Amino acid sequence: GGNVLWVGGRVSGVIDWDLATSDDPAIDVAALAGWHGWGVAGGLAPAPVVRRAAVFRRSGPLQALAFLMRDGRPSAEVEAFVQRVAERLRSPGDQ
């Protein structure tokens, strides 16, 4: 997210391409909107891409949980993460 330059609320440039890949642009939109606020999503891509990005956004906690479990993190850490996600899902607002 910090590698995206903005001018007047619009993306003006992208720097540091070392992790660039060719994949679904919705993944990038979800990441950028998560970093810069979901309100910018509509200005990043066409509506169908933004709708797919919303799916990636909502699946983020599941992906993080999968990484914790894959990495064999202690059960207390996994349980604490699940609690934080559950609390966030119960709270209103931009998630």
In short:
This protein is mostly helical and 95 residues long.
Task: Explain this structure.
This protein is mainly alpha-helical and 95 residues long. The protein is 55% helix and 9% strand. It has three helices and two strands; from the N terminus they run ββααα. The protein has helices at residues 25-36, 47-70, 75-90; strands spanning 4-7, 10-14. It has a two-stranded antiparallel ribbon. A hairpin with a 2-residue loop joins β1 (4-7) and β2 (10-14). α1 (25-36) packs across α2 (47-70) and α2 (47-70) runs antiparallel to α3. The protein is globular. The protein starts with a strand and ends in a 5-residue tail after the last helix.
Summary keywords:
95 residues, mainly alpha, two-stranded antiparallel ribbon, 2 strands
